[in-house]
Every structure is written in structure tokens, then in C-alpha cells.
Design a protein that fits this description.
alpha/beta, eight-stranded parallel beta sheet, seven-stranded mixed beta sheet, about 35% helix, about 25% strand, globular, binds 3-[(4S)-2,5-dioxoimidazolidin-4-yl]propanoic acid, binds fe (iii) ion
């Protein structure tokens, strides 16, 4: 047993029932036992026998310690970029128009299919390291730019490989129903058949942790979404949904009916949708980067989500078309400025609630028995993490008990 002790720090435990905002402990002690936290609390309450059992004693230098951050919605693995499309959008063509003309997601599908696994690994790895520089220790990565068995497999394998080569946890999501590939033009139900076959094969290979669908006018219908979700649940896989981003299609109610982990985007979410999510315990994943980059004007109904007690997570949605963003801290700021979350809600959105959005019960708060994934920050108060946009206050990370 090797126990190590961290003192000379504040800890924002993000514990839900803590009486203090952020669960903040001013003069904290943390005892790390291998990959897990053994004890967290005020230093003066540390049991003396536990303190003397610690073989190492680290001085945290006055840092603020939070749970390692969790980015619960990314499309990190893709080929090419969409800078030219950005220029077109600035000249007045809309995101949906570009998608209907065969650009948008379809153009990234072309670039992804042409890229080698090495190229995809290099570009996604660079984006992953940028996220990690903001204290991210867990990241979800979706497929969805291959849209055929082999390129979808390659993208999921690249995501899995990134976990082996970086000190970060990766959860993969199969998003085969992201867009209609050109070879299936006019045959979207046939494509869903194919996507279900892909799902079964990739799941059997151990490449899939969850299943997502883009339910939208330019994506797939609620009926098609239900087919994918039925197949996913039959395989024992959790589901989540890109829901009500550009219009209200009732996707949130549908997803909640399947016990979805999360519904993501939600600018057009109805009160009925929010109520259904609350009843099912489905997390609302807010993506202010996509809202900002598409210059949307309709804000997700934050007050309605609050009234229903729906947990709100915050994520980058890192993707080439609607949110080419690799800073989760910037999303904290935008969640506050654009969506009017409090800094405490925003921080809960990348810790406790992001863990819930991924179905993870072993992280997201600092408490005994949780993974020792810790982010150390050069700030005086946790609100600074949301406040100073563009700042890089991360000092160091402990990942599964190991200092990085
Ligand atoms: N919604 C999004 O924000 C991303 N996918 C989706 O379904 C954007 C995908 C892209 O434009 O490449
Ligand atoms: Fe997305």
C-alpha cells in the first residue's frame, strides 16, 4: 500500500450535497491510495494515523484542486478541416444549406475516408493534447465521419489507441447515424440497416461504449433514431442523442423513453422534452461552442432545465464544422456568458454532471473511493476557471493517482 498526501491546497470537491459552493475546502488535505482517493477533507480533520501512514507528502504550492475535467461530447477523430466552409458561411450561406449541397459533414466524410489511420491519429492526438492542457482527464470520442464499416472502424480504433498513448480515459460512441453518406442518397432507411450491421460488428470487436444519433432535418428522423436505439439497447449499450439543435423534432422525449444518458445541444428543447429528460434522469449536454460558431440566436431553455432539476453538462463538441474548439475552459466561459449558467453550474458541467452524462460513477467529484484524477490550478477561486477566457491556469494533473 502506497499512500501519498497532498496539502497546502484548496479543493473544489464539486460534491452535490456540500453546503459550501463548489464543495470548496479552504485548507484541504487529500490522501491518494494507488489510483483512488482514500480521503478528502479539511486538513485539520485528517486522522493522524492516516497521515502517518502516508509514505509521500506533496506540497501543492497553494493550488486549487478540482476533479480532472471531463469532455463528454467530442468528434475528435476526423480528416481535413472546414475553414473554406467557414468563409462561405461568413458570406451568408447557412450551415444547413451547405449540408444540403453536399458540403458540411459529407465533406469531412470524404476527407476522413481518404486519411490514413496514422494521419487521423496525428491530428486527433494534437487536439486531444490541447484538451488535456486544460485539465481534461476523461474524453468521449464519437465516430461518425466514416459512415461505412471500414472507416468507422478505423476512427474508433484511433480513439481507442489514443487512450493507450495518453494519460487520459477515452469512451467511444458509435455515431454511424450522423449523416447520410452519398452512396445512399435517397435511401436513408437502407443506410440505417447498414448502420445497424456496422454497430453489431464494431460492438463485437469491443470498439463501442455507447450509441448516438443526429436526429434533425439534415440528419435522421425520430423513427430512424428509434430503430438505432432499439438495436443499441438490445446489445446492452447506452444511448444518447444530438437533439433539438436546429429544430424541435421531439428527439428529447424519444431519447428519454430509451433511458438515454444525455441529450445534447437542445437549443429548441420544449418543456415536454425537459420534463421527459427529468423523469428519465437524462443529462442535458450544453454545447456553447456550436451555438457561438453557427451564430445561433436561440438559447437552450436553461431556466426550464433548472426548474425540472435536469443535470446540465458542458462540452466542447469539438468537430470541424460547428465547433472547431479544443478548450474546455473556454466552454465554461461561454456557458456563462452565452447561456447564463453560473460559474459553479459550469464547473459542475465539466465534472460531476459530465461524468453522469457518460454513465461514470467513479469520477467527477473529489471523494473517498473516487478515481484520483485531479487537476491543479493556479487560481485563487474556482470561479476564475470560467471567468478568464483564454487563460491557461493548469499547473499539473494527477491521472489515476500518478502525477503527470
Ligand atoms: N451536430 C454537431 O454539432 C456536429 N454533429 C452534429 O450532429 C457537427 C458536425 C459537423 O458539422 O461536422
Ligand atoms: Fe456533436
Amino acid at each position: 500500500m502506497t499512500l501519498s498526501l497532498w496539502t497546502h491546497c484548496q479543493a473544489a470537491t464539486m460534491q452535490p450535497h456540500a453546503t459550501l459552493p463548489y464543495g470548496l475546502i479552504a485548507d484541504a488535505a487529500l490522501v491518494v491510495d494507488g489510483p483512488v482517493l482514500r480521503w478528502v477533507g479539511p486538513r485539520h480533520e485528517l486522522p493522524p494515523d492516516l497521515a502517518s501512514a502516508c509514505s509521500t507528502h506533496h506540497d501543492a504550492g497553494g493550488a486549487l484542486i478540482t476533479p480532472g475535467l471531463i469532455d463528454c461530447h467530442t468528434h475528435l477523430v476526423y480528416g481535413g478541416d472546414r475553414a473554406a466552409e467557414f468563409e462561405r458561411r461568413l458570406q451568408g450561406t447557412s450551415y444547413e444549406e451547405i449540408a444540403r449541397q453536399g458540403g458540411g459533414i459529407a465533406s469531412t466524410v470524404r476527407a476522413t475516408r481518404q486519411a490514413s489511420a496514422e494521419q487521423l491519429t496525428a491530428s486527433a492526438g494534437a487536439r486531444l493534447r490541447a484538451l488535456m492542457a486544460d485539465g481534461v482527464t476523461t474524453v468521449e470520442i464519437k465516430s461518425g465521419y466514416g459512415l461505412a464499416l471500414e472507416p468507422e472502424r478505423t476512427c474508433l480504433e484511433v480513439a481507442r489507441a489514443l487512450e493507450r498513448t495518453h494519460p487520459v480515459s477515452v469512451l467511444t460512441t458509435f455515431l454511424g447515424a450522423h449523416a447520410l453518406p452519398p452512396e445512399f442518397a435517397g435511401r436513408s432507411d437502407d443506410y440505417i440497416d447498414t448502420a445497424l450491421t456496422m454497430l453489431a460488428v464494431l460492438h463485437a470487436q469491443g470498439l463501442v461504449d455507447a450509441v448516438d444519433v443526429f436526429c434533425e432535418r439534415i440528419g435522421f428522423s425520430p423513427a430512424q433514431t428509434a430503430r438505432v436505439f432499439t438495436a443499441a439497447r438490445a446489445l446492452g449499450l447506452p444511448v444518447k442523442l444530438h437533439a433539438e439543435q436546429l429544430s424541435d423534432s421531439g428527439g428529447a422525449q424519444l431519447a428519454a423513453g430509451f433511458g438515454a444518458l444525455s441529450c445534447d445541444h437542445l437549443e429548441w428543447l420544449s418543456a415536454e422534452g425537459a420534463a421527459a429528460m427529468a423523469a428519465a434522469g437524462t443529462v442535458a449536454v450544453l454545447l456553447p461552442g456550436a451555438f457561438y460558431f453557427l451564430r445561433e440566436t436561440r438559447v437552450p431553455p436553461i431556466d426550464v432545465l433548472r426548474q425540472h432539476g435536469v443535470a446540465m453538462a458542458v462540452s466542447t463538441d469539438c468537430n470541424p464544422g460547428s465547433s472547431p474548439c479544443t478548450s474546455l475552459l473556454l466552454m465554461l466561459n461561454m456557458a456563462c456568458t452565452l447561456f447564463r449558467l453560473t460559474p459553479e453550474e459550469a464547473l459542475a458541467g465539466v465534472t460531476r454532471h459530465a461524468a453522469k452524462a457518460l454513465g461514470l460513477h467513479d469520477r467527477g467529484v473529489l471523494a473517498a473511493g473516487m478515481r484520483a484524477d485531479l487537476a491543479f490550478w493556479d487560481v485563487q477561486h474556482p470561479a476564475e476557471l470560467a471567468y478568464a477566457f483564454g487563460a491557461r491556469p493548469l499547473r499539473q494533473v494527477v491521472f489515476a493517482g500518478v502525477l503527470r
